[in-house]
Amino acid sequence: MTATIHHPPTHEDRPSSPPPRLSLVPAGSAPAPLDGAWWPRSRDLGAELPALTAVLDPLWGRITRVTVNPTHWPTVPRKVPVAGHVVKVGWFLAEQDPHGLLLLSYRVGHWTLLVVPPQTTPVSAAWLMAAASDPLGTSTASRLMEEAARLRTVAEADRAVEAVWDSEGGMKPAAPAARPRTPAATATTRDGPGAAPGQERGEPRAPRRTSGRNQW
Fold first, then answer.
1. Residues whose CB is less than 8 angstroms from the CB of residue 51 and which lie 6 or more positions away in sequence, other chains included
2. Which residues of 126-147 are buried (b: 16+ CB within 10 A; e: fewer)?
3. pLDDT band at residue 216, thresholds of 50, 70 and 90?
4. CA distance linking residue 37 with residue 150, whole number of Å
5. What's the pTM?
6. How far apart, in whole angstroms, are the C-alpha atoms of residue 35 and residue 140?
7. How many angstroms separate the most distant Cα atoms in the chain?
8. Other beta carbons within 10 Å of 8
9. pLDDT for 111-143, tens place per residue?
10. Which residues, other chains included, contact 22 with Cβ-Cβ below 8 Å and sequence gap of 6+?
11. Any residues with CB less than 8 A from the CB of 203 and at least 6 apart, and which?
């Protein structure tokens, strides 16, 4: 892949930029794959880097060089004028995470930031910036982007289910009608009404025995 080389205007010719959207790991944290996240407003490095370095220079020392993967940067300038100095810009394909930005400070060190795509929704960007600045994080920039995409898919599926629910009035399916209760069978009892002692109800009554005299 060939990166487009662009010669930008000087820093004095640029209008003032809004503060960068930036999230960094706490100072003194153990080394991790990422040192934070940066959410630029465009893919124009010449326009975005001055505001970023203005915040990072006092924290990390003067940023003298940055490198990117040109996969997501249509134009990669050789140099970017910033406040008080010039930042050199380089690019790598296989050697650098396509979602990462490497910053180097002369004789101080280097740091890696996740670059949150400019078009990212605020909810997803907030999650990415929090995850990238977690001092206990172990994920690379690309791994976090994959996880954010998975979470978006889950959220969209949930919204689709809710939309179907709302379209149906939010009602649960009607419960099946209750079956009528079957009356309990009445047990035949001994000595019940109309039955002689010792006789089952419904049996024919035995003729009464009489004495040998005629009954008038």
1. 17, 18, 19, 20
2. ebbbebbbbeebebbbebbbee
3. very low
4. 19
5. 0.68
6. 10
7. 147
8. 20
9. 999 999 999 999 999 999 999 999 999 999 999
10. 36, 37, 38, 39, 52, 55
11. 195
Residue 211 Cα distances to 196, 204, 205, 207, angstroms: 20, 22, 19, 13
Please give the Cα distance from 85 to 65 (Å, whole number). Answer: 11
pLDDT digits (tens, 9 = 90+) for 145-174: 999 999 989 988 878 787 777 777 765 555
What are residue 105's DSSP bridge partners? 63, 109
Q: What is the DSSP string of 149-195?
A: HHHHHHHHHHHHHHHHHHHTTTPPPPPPPPPPPPPPPPPP-BT-TT-
Which ranges constitute the DSSP H helices of the chain? 45-60, 122-132, 141-167
| CA 86/CA 72 separation, integer angstroms | 23
What's the pLDDT at 174? 54
* Confidence at residue 25, expressed as pLDDT on a 0 to 100 scale: 97
Give me the pLDDT at residue 204, please.
52
Using CA atoms, how far apart are residues 125 and 203, in angstroms rounded to an integer?
89
- How would residue 214 be classed by pLDDT, with cut points 50, 70 and 90? very low
Question: Which residues are registered as beta bridge partners of 200?
Answer: 190
Which has the closest alpha carbon to 64: 46, 80, 81, 87?
Answer: 87
66 touches 101 (CB < 8 A): yes
Q: Is 98 exposed, middle or buried (0-12, 13-18, 19+ CB in 10 A)?
A: middle
